[in-house]
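ESCALATION

Customer reports they have been waiting on this structure for their group meeting. Please prioritize. Original submission:
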Amino acid sequence: MNIHEYQAKELYRKYGIPVPQGIPCMSPEEAVEAAKKLIADTGSEVVVVKAQIHAGGRGKAGGVKVCKGIEAATAAAHDIFGKVLVTPQTGPEGKKVQRLLVEQGLAIKSELYLALVVDRETKKVAIMASTEGGMDIEEVAHNTPEKIHMVYFHADAGLQDHHVRKLSYALGLTKTESKNFHKLIVNLAKLFVAEDCSIAEVNPLILTKDEQVLALDAKVNFDGNAEFRHQAYWESVRDLSEEAPTETEAAEAGLSYIQLDGNIGCLVNGAGLAMSTMDTIKHFGGEPANFLDVGGGASQESVTKAFKIILQSDAVQGIFVNIFGGIMRCDVIANGVVAASKELGLTVPLVVRLAGTNVEQGKEILNNSGLRIVAADTMAEGAQKIVELAKGA
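Update from on-call: job pushed to the front of the queue and completed.
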């Protein structure tokens, strides 16, 4: 689950991580009042008006403006609020700005990059740091990989002093900066573990002219598997307007669904099989329109719901149902497929591959349905057929 920058910074403050003074705003008028307050409190005319969306690259898209004085801040707030920002992370449709963050301006000496992520290969928390702050880390990794410095720590053991010393040296920090950096990164590591984060990123992490170290930006993603430990808090910071409606609807129905950019809808039971199904579709020249795992205990109703969610995308030109019946029974899936196809008046090609528990009963249900359902005996056969049929559609 993602949260906004201003929410991440509230969490940072809770853990003693220095951030600029800032005020979240839900309208341009609130932003103007926030700018007035910050100018009065800090004695500086410089404020920054920042769009709040769940995507990076806001600055390049015109969603971050440094302003001097109330007049400039007013113009920036009215320009950004309600604007549709298109960044590499939003896709071509972009995201509409419905929240703003107004912050104090700071005298920046230099910008760094800092992020904590879960490294699945080492089963540790990886810390990435670079002197190339303010840039896309993918660009840095591609052009100057030697400028990315890594350390790893075990979540149970916690971050150690030697980890921090290594990064401080690599970033070329002064003695005072190293002391301030040490406090910040130790607290960020505590936050990462305690709040069950999948990523905690600061880009840029700034050094000021008086050798302070502050998180000028903040990005926090939470691991959805830990929701049961933080349910009340997560519900309080979740912004459904930033999430794909189909994904929210699927989650409420107990389905694991992620919308993609392809044209072939996938309905599969089991995350591993779903990933393999998408890979096989791509192998035969197709593009999956979604990841959808109906789970091991899906009912006829949930299968029907899954079909409805898949077909909400106008891009879908075919559906591939790929089921291995272990806990899940193939006849239940077959009944769901038939019921959904009839209820929705399915017009796009449909390929179904069933294997496992009650597979013969499932195939019989499909064969006797009177519907134009193409059967497949293997995943490869089914993927190849739906790719060909979707091209024809």
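Sent to customer with the following note: The longest helix spans residues 175-194.
Escalation resolved.
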